[in-house]
Design goal:
Layout lengths: L2 H11 L5 H5 L3 H10 L9 H14 L3 E5 L5 H10 L3 E5 L2 H11 L5 E5 L2 H13 L6 E5 L13 H8 L5 E6 L13 E2 L2 E2 L2 H10 L4 E5 L13 E6 L1 H9 L7 E5 L4 E2 L8
Parallel strand pairs: 1-2, 1-4, 2-3, 4-5
Antiparallel strand pairs: 5-9, 6-7, 8-10, 10-11
Helix pairs in contact: 7-8
Bound molecules: S-adenosylmethionine.
The site of S-adenosylmethionine has 18 residues, from strand 1, helix 5 and strand 2.
């Protein structure tokens, strides 16, 4: 697909309301909808979109913060689908200009031309001063696969960890024991739990969450993701495990093993 076609798709996505997908109360219903009308957001992953919906709802999220806008597929989709204000930052001037163009006039979307670390430094300082702020972060900024220095993840996380309550989803993440998911590799280093384990444990974050379904079951590009949070609301929702949070499975960062191993979908 050409760049122009991709941009035209983004422009069309401005009109999507995602009402039926928002209301879809099960995996089969969500998958059927996305097969009928493919989504552009979240790597076209409809099950991941439902997971994010569940996270933002359980967190009572006050905003969605995306690192790496590219052409605003997730920026536009997340705002329309989740119905929360969205902030997104992009370091590349051309991608920033394209994303400005395709989001022109859309309410509740703020695009920033900045490096994700500079953006997070400012945003987290501002959020810290707002009582009741409960941001959801989508970490998807990366550049050159040959160079680990172009992956800002290790510098983004400590900025987020200054906050009292938050959820984080990292894209392009290795999913333990699920070979179907693709992970990013930068300078020969794979984006997986061991890369961020000391940072999580240092914060007392002992559990992270991975998709509880095989990559082949979802629509779109099979990139893995990892979720974690500091939120009593989300902890409570995970004890209930009602759809869509039954789509993720807890993983012990300390033990490097799934919790309740027997029920992990293969
Ligand atoms: C995988 S794309 C993002 C896709 C987008 N989140 C989506 O779902 O459609 C990664 C983007 O991150 C941008 N990027 C790379 N390093 C960055 C950084 N340090 N800060 C902000 N953006 C960055 C790249 O220019 C690229 O547009």
């Amino acid at each position: 697909m050409s760049r122009l076609q991709r941009v035209m798709q983004r422009v069309q996505s401005r009109g999507h309301d995602y009402g039926p997908l928002r209301a879809a109360a099960g995996k089969a219903a969500a998958l059927a909808l996305a097969r009928q009308t493919p989504i552009g957001m979240f790597n076209k992953n409809v099950l991941r979109a439902k997971v994010v919906q569940g996270v933002v709802a359980a967190l009572a999220g006050t905003g969605f913060y995306e690192m790496g806008t590219y052409h605003a597929a997730t920026t536009i989709g997340a705002q329309r689908f989740l119905q929360v204000p969205v902030w997104s930052c992009e370091v590349n001037p051309r991608n920033y200009c394209i994303s400005r163009l395709v989001t022109l006039g859309l309410p509740q979307i703020t695009l920033i031309h900045a490096d994700s670390r500079a953006f997070l430094r400012r945003v987290c300082a501002e959020l810290k001063a707002v009582p009741g702020a409960r941001p959801c972060f989508y970490l998807d900024a990366h550049e050159n696969e040959l160079d680990l220095a172009t992956l800002p993840l290790a510098e983004e996380l400590p900025l987020i960890f200054a906050l009292d309550e938050f959820a984080v989803l990292v894209d392009d993440f290795g999913v333990p024991e699920q070979a179907g998911y693709r992970a990013g590799t930068f300078g020969g280093v794979t984006v997986e739990v061991d890369l961020i384990r000391p940072l999580l444990l240092d914060q007392g974050i002992r559990t992270c969450y991975f998709p509880a379904y095989p990559a082949a079951e979802d629509t779109g590009y099979p990139s893995g993701f990892c979720l974690f949070w500091r939120s009593a609301r989300l902890d409570a929702a995970m004890r209930e495990r009602a759809f869509p949070l039954d789509l993720i499975h807890p993983y012990s960062v300390e033990r490097r093993a799934y919790v309740e191993r027997a029920s992990v979908a293969k």
